[in-house]
Amino acid sequence: MNADRHVAVVTPWYPDPQVTYAGAFVKAQVEAVAGGCSDLDVYHLKSWPVGEAGAPLDANPEVLDLHARLLARADAPLATAGGAVLHRVPTLTPRDTAWITHSDASARWLRTFLGGRPLDAPIVHAHVPITGGWAALENAAPDARVYMTEHSSFLADLLDQPAARARYEQVLERADGFFVVGEPLHDLIAATFPRFADKLEYIANPIDFRTARAEAPRSLRRWLSVAALNERKRIDYLLEAFRRCRADDPELTLTLAGDGKLRPALEALAADLGVADAVAFLGSVDPSEVPGLMASHDLFVHTSRHETFGVVVVEALAAGTPVLVSRCGGSDQVLRGIESEAGRLYDVDDDPDVLVAAYLELRERYPEKTDVDAARELLRAKYSYETVAERHFEVWDREGRR
């Protein structure tokens, strides 16, 4: 690492041995900017739920006291991406959905971990403003500049909670810079807090463009989805559309990389649809394996109902793989102006024939009327590690705005 920038990153999400994919985009940011920093410390506020469902955190005073005494001596720094230093901060949280309590817990346990001393970095960049952002603001030195990035797909639900909404407004007020990764988040925050609309800026998640396939796919038969197996990702919809397309082309295969509570039901659905022999459930995949996985398939298919950015869409094109993607918010922004070159966007609809028709149209014009290489280069200019790092340096090096 070099340059005269001492930065602390505060985040509730970061990969760990138990959940290797959680916060992978934060780790990517750390790797992207590390070379431009003299010191870079990452504070991972890992949530540890305690107590009975709905019970306040202070209902367990003995547990809290013991945790506080242990936490003050718990720092065991680890090397992480780009030579940065990672500090795991076990963060006791209540088993409830009130975001204000999670916000308070994040600030409380980071303060305990630091022994009551402020973060010693003059630049602090937090992820997830309601938790990481509040913890950063409450624990930064008085003269530190504090920036934050919003990625959260659950933000609309969070802002429906009055106490959390009031806290979020405080965060917006106090932050030196406030960034979103996509238009859906920008529009939601600007509509909810119009007096801060001019404070919102875009900053992208960095994408690895270092892995690319040797040659373009000759056909679009090997489908790939990289998504959690939950309702929002609509994998049941994908399986039904795949069945209909495979009836026309029995050589089609589908690989599902991702895990979740719906996996047993989706495996049963694949069997009921008669496509189990053509569908591979890989389970959770380490983020480092995703570029190679993208490069080994012919078509990336994304069926999500809503996304804040669309990291996996850019990852597919970074690997040189065409995409078939729902208009789910973030993906629209990513592919604006290059839709036909990159593959195909289709409307979010509950009728699988919408996806089927989009696939057939793309198959008809592929490869002559697509240009994945051109799309890849345009995206590299926006989302590569180098580009995103320079954007962070531009932000960090300017005067604070508080």
TrEMBL record:
It comes from the Bacteria. GO terms for molecular function: glycosyltransferase activity. InterPro entries: Glyco_trans_1, Glyco_trans_4-like_N. Residues 72-208 form the Glycosyltransferase subfamily 4-like N-terminal domain. It comes from Glycomyces artemisiae. Keywords: Glycosyltransferase, Transferase. Residues 223-362 form the Glycosyl transferase family domain. This is Glycogen(Starch) synthase.
